[in-house]
Design goal:
single chain; alpha+beta; two-stranded parallel ribbon; 6 strands; 43% helix
Length: 171
């Protein structure tokens, strides 16, 4: 499949380990947004992003019906962050913490893969905490969620980022 551009994204197929996947890029210059269909991100993609911008790794979440995935996801993203000297945004770990602390919370859409509004809100709060290095707890925006729940998700985001940054990594 050839490279094509749509809605400000460029779709480019690539093959890794014999499997063809799609990669979506947006931006050029100081900000580049890259998504891939792979469970993790490849070192080639990380290297490209680092050359054109200050790259971070978006640690994704486990599927809602496979929460055990977070162990391998967290390990893979942490390892790649160390190898490539990239900041890791631990969204997946925040999803896991929210799942454990708030029984019955629905962080995924019915497809079990993509985030619900609550999951998207939590991910945004994790990005805020990681990128700004400060707690999102005092932010007023709640995306239409119950204000108590929104506050709790912002607290979980801050706790997750703080704990992840403080945790020893590597050997």
């Amino acid at each position: 499949m050839p490279t094509e551009t749509f809605d400000d994204f460029t779709l480019e197929p690539f093959t890794a380990e014999g499997i063809t996947k799609n990669e979506y890029w947006q931006g050029a210059g100081p900000a580049v947004f890259i998504m891939t269909e792979m469970t993790g991100i490849t070192t080639d993609v990380a290297g490209f992003a680092r050359r054109v911008a200050e790259a971070v790794l978006f640690m994704t979440w486990a599927y809602s019906d496979k929460p055990e995935m977070i162990t391998s996801l967290a390990s893979a993203f942490t390892r790649l962050g160390l190898e490539e000297l990239l900041m890791v945004i631990p969204v997946g770990l925040a999803f896991e913490q929210a799942r454990q602390e708030i029984p019955g919370i629905v962080l995924h859409d019915p497809d079990r893969l993509h985030p619900s509004l609550k999951g998207t809100y939590l991910a945004a709060a994790v990005f805020y905490a990681a990128l700004y290095g400060k707690s999102p707890e005092s932010l007023a925006y709640d995306a239409g969620l119950d204000s108590t729940l929104a506050q709790r998700l912002r607290r979980i985001a801050w706790q997750t980022v703080s704990k992840y940054k403080a945790a020893p990594k590597g050997d």
